[in-house]
């Protein structure tokens, strides 16, 4: 009997002009020139300044049984990969399940507090997805970003759903969602406006 597969969902916060980070990301400024101090304070204020208002969306994100992220989301500084660095999610990252990090830099799996283990995948997006699906069982896999990683999965036709958290300001430049992605047909599943963000979920039609 074949075990049913969960949904592959991309979940990302973007400015209203589609950017998830500015240029010049560093270890101290993970979101680069994002229109604030480079820490994503403006982009992700909806999570931290109004958590109760957006509790359902945060819980939905945390319900995944495995995650995939790009190297820049783990940590973009090239030198950081040459030393024992835990990424900028701290000693107890919020995932609490396996996280598969796309990278060209091979590393041993990195267990963290709270149940998160980072697995560093060097053989491409399909391998990362296969490993994440195996870890998730019949649970959902969330591709957490950044935009470059999500664009690769969208272009390859490997995404079932897209959850966007759209913040009402323009960034103007940086890493942009849908860059280089062929035309997509999407079905809007739901949307909800909050005080600092609009949440929209789309099904990717094939």
Brief synopsis:
By secondary structure, the chain is an alpha/beta fold. The protein is built from five helices and eleven strands, in the order ββααβαβββαβαββββ. The chain has a single domain, classed as Dihydrofolate Reductase, subunit A, CATH 3.40.430.10.
Overall description:
With 206 residues, this protein is an alpha/beta fold. The protein has one domain: Dihydrofolate Reductase, subunit A. The protein is built from five helices and eleven strands. Strands 5-6-4-3-7-1-8-11-10 form a nine-stranded mixed β-sheet. It has a two-stranded antiparallel sheet with strand order 2-9. The mean pLDDT is 88.
Describe the main β-sheet briefly.
9 strands, mixed
Give the DSSP E fraction (strand runs of 2 or more residues).
Answer: 25-35%
Q: Estimate the mean pLDDT confidence.
A: 88
Number of discrete domains = 1
Rg over CA atoms, rounded to whole Å, is 16 Å
What proportion of the residues is helical, as a percent range? Answer: 10-25%
The first-to-last residue Cα distance is 26 Å
Shape: globular
The CATH first-level class comes to: Alpha Beta
Instruction: Identify the CATH homologous superfamily.
Output: Dihydrofolate Reductase, subunit A
Order of helices and strands: EEHHEHEEEHEHEEEE
What's the CATH topology name?
Dihydrofolate Reductase, subunit A
